[in-house]
Amino acid sequence: MLYILIWLIVLAISVSLFKKVSGSLSILQPNLNSIIFYYSLFFSSFIGSLLIVLDVDDYYMINKLTDDNYRLIGFLVICFTMVFLPLTMYILSKLVGFDAKVEYQSYLKKPVETIFNVKTEFYFLFAGLSAVSMLACAYTLLKTGQIPLVELLTNPSADLGKLRIDAARHFNGNVLIRNIFAIALTPLLSLIAYVYSVKTNMTRWKILFLGLFACSVVISIYDLAKSPIFFYVIMFLLVRIYIGKTKFTPLKIFVLGTLGASLLVVMYVFIQDVTNLESYLSYNSGPIGRVIFAQIAPTFLHLNIFGDALPFLNGRGLPSVFLDLFGVEQVRSARLVMEVAFPQRIEEGTGGVLNTLYVAEAYANFGYVGIVIGTIYIGLIIQVLYIAFLRLPKNPVFISLFIYFSINIPRTLVGGFTDFLFNIIWFIVVFLMVGMILFIRFRIDLFSLFRNRKLRENVK
Description:
single chain; 20 helices; globular
């Protein structure tokens, strides 16, 4: 009963803080911070932590704990995160005079600006980058030995679990081309093209959007991962909300939720061959167990394993761009935990990594100090981005970047900590998008300057 009381108190505090730093926790008006609360913390972490500390989870990962004291320790760590992450964001908001409710509602009502009135230079520069991303999608498929999606359609008896691991860990091409230009950039460019096609009603933008949209769908499902296509759909819904084309209602949410759940069931049936009805209804297996336990259980394993079975990494999990300067090889804690907890999966080739809430990787590297400092650091990063995007011009590029981070930051929060220190994919995506804007603006400014100078000379 004590744990339930603590859980309810922490939930009340967290809801209050997140509402203040996001402007709205209504599911009818989703935003970066509300998605973090619902997806990264409440459903993926907080619910499961209560069941684990109450010892009613009966989840296969938690059964790997060698010390049940870590049920309580893990629960307290998650409670800390639920309060101090939004608290950090709230303090920053107060310091910079950010009123989330006012500025978020103002952003929703703000009209969309088309950059440079859709100058031809911008279109061709954008089309060129789009061509690169679509070619990168083709390259990804060509360099994937056995494409899981194709094997599902042509060879139902194939070991799809192993094929998915092989597609991710044994890619035969350049990983940066795949991860940046195919997986990350294509969906982002499709959103920008969509906004332009809606705002300009030009055929060329519509055709470009359709090509990018098709490539985005393929690159989201080619390896049979279930989450990418769902997140792409959410990105699409967000862009329609932000440009005023869609307004959520309880009925629409119900219909979309029903369709999403149905699609998820179909994917479990055909991809993982799960046909037992009990697996879908059970709280610790199937889709439900995947949501409330799969993302948070590895956090408890991290707390149990590091400092006991394994020494702390002491920074060896930091981004390789930093470690390479000192000749140190990067070690990801999520992989080490998989090796310790499920060695048989590693031997069979079906074991990947046990990604989980960022506090786990922070702890694996720096202990409990890492959890505290990491929470403060990430809270600052998230709120700085949220404030910046709400205050930047509302044009197709910045809208799409806002949505890109509104989806990828929540996903990264339950993927690790070090990606927040330096993320090459985020860096290049922002560089390319902002670079396009600056390049065109610089050319236009120079052209205007040159033209005005010519006019002055002719007058003389």
